[in-house]
Amino acid sequence: MSFELKTHLEEIISLTDQEFEHIAAHFKPKTLKKHQYLIQEDEFVNHIYFVVKGLLKATFTDANGKAYIIQFAMENWWLSDFRAFYGHVKSITNISCLENSELLSISKDDLDQLCRESHKMEHFFRIKNSLGYVALQQRILSLLTTSPKERFEQLAQQYPQLMQRVSKTIIAAYLGISRETLSRLSAKV
Amino acid sequence: MSFELKTHLEEIISLTDQEFEHIAAHFKPKTLKKHQYLIQEDEFVNHIYFVVKGLLKATFTDANGKAYIIQFAMENWWLSDFRAFYGHVKSITNISCLENSELLSISKDDLDQLCRESHKMEHFFRIKNSLGYVALQQRILSLLTTSPKERFEQLAQQYPQLMQRVSKTIIAAYLGISRETLSRLSAKV
Fold first, then answer.
1. What is the pLDDT of residue B105?
2. Would you call B133 and A136 a contact, using CB atoms and an 8 Å cutoff?
3. Which residues on chain A are in Cβ contact (under 8 Å) with B70?
4. For the packed helices B168-175 and B148-158, what is the interaxial angle rounded to 10 degrees?
5. Could you tell me if residue A170 is inside a domain?
6. How many structural domains does chain B have?
7. What is the per-residue pLDDT across A10-45, written as a single tens digit (0 to 9) for each?
């Protein structure tokens, strides 16, 4: 089904073709065009998504209408409103496409069943979740201790691809700085 | 061995006495006094810890010597420098006790072995890691979108116990505000 998913899973677990076919049968392809929404605020969220191709952003809009970009997702990333997905509550984020995107979706019931049936997949998601936890801890540390300039440099170093694919306005919204401040910073790098 | 650990595991998985004995055999008790260090900066980290009793803080000190509190941990929380633990790199945090503390430790090898032997434990940590991920996402959202005043109110509402057990200086360092600003905020609540 998806060569990309198999390669991605095999970074953590080894699978026979038969095992992968069983896993892949739990996923459904989903295609979205640039600007289309994957998840909208105030909806219940019953799926997580693996990005085969494309680029998406998750935003939160506060009571005053100010929008914050809380996450990007591109090839080989997992994406959802995880708070809504795991907590059975409504989404507080909007997730939309910055490029045409190809995703694979799995429902909560299918994910739970797959992990029950396959110890390997339970292991895969345990490790994946722990790596995600560490990445978020690093982001918190960065938000607490670094200046916007340092955050911009970290982002450029960690995800050089992202800087090519996303507009400066979007990068500025992610860093929590104005478009003008970002132009000043990026001129210096 | 530990009634607290059994109760905690059984929030997510069901265990026979025999299964729990097998699990508990992988953990070792560790007792620390107030002010003692559990993990120090620049060490490799080979254990994660379950807090049976007590209160700890994880701090990060920047190049200028300014210390940031990045996390607290109290009863029923899991704690480590997870970046160092999972990534086989040296710790960048100091973790120390704010109260006398009783912990249970498990090594990386024992954790991996336990999860290999017990699908239930692999499931427990998958779910636990996903809940941790969601909690950190909420903290990032809070850091991006709320004022120190709102963060103080959220903390007081979410962890009223913590406010009783920790000095105002420590709370201020966690919120990233001065001790004086905190006094002004807490007088109003």
1. 98
2. yes
3. 137, 140-141, 144
4. 120
5. no
6. 1
7. 999 999 999 999 999 999 999 999 999 999 999 999
Select the residue from A12, A80, A145, A151 to test the B interface by mutation, using most B Cβ atoms within 10 A: A145
Q: A68 and B138 in contact by Cβ < 8 A?
A: no
Judge whether A178 lies within some domain. Answer: no
Note whether residue A154 is domain-resident.
no
Which domain range does residue A27 map to? 3-107
Angle at B69 between CA A92 and CA B92, to 5 degrees: 105
Interface of chain A toward chain B, CB-CB under 8 angstroms: 60, 62, 66, 68, 70, 82-83, 86-87, 115-116, 119, 122-123, 125-126, 129-134, 136-141, 143-145, 176
> What's the pLDDT at A189?
55
Q: Does the pLDDT value for residue B106 go beyond 60?
A: yes
Q: Provide the sign of the torsion angle of the four alpha carbons B154, B156, B161, B165, taken in this order.
A: positive
Reply yes or no on whether the pLDDT at A46 is more than 60: yes
Q: How many CB atoms are located within 10 Å of the residue B43 CB? A: 13
Distance from CA of A120 to the nearest CA of B (A): 9
- Residue A94 included in any domain: yes
Residues 6 or more apart whose Cβ sits within 8 Å of residue B97: B32, B33, B34, B35, B36, B37, B38, B54, B55, B56
Tokens of B28: 């070792």
CATH number at residue A81: 2.60.120.10
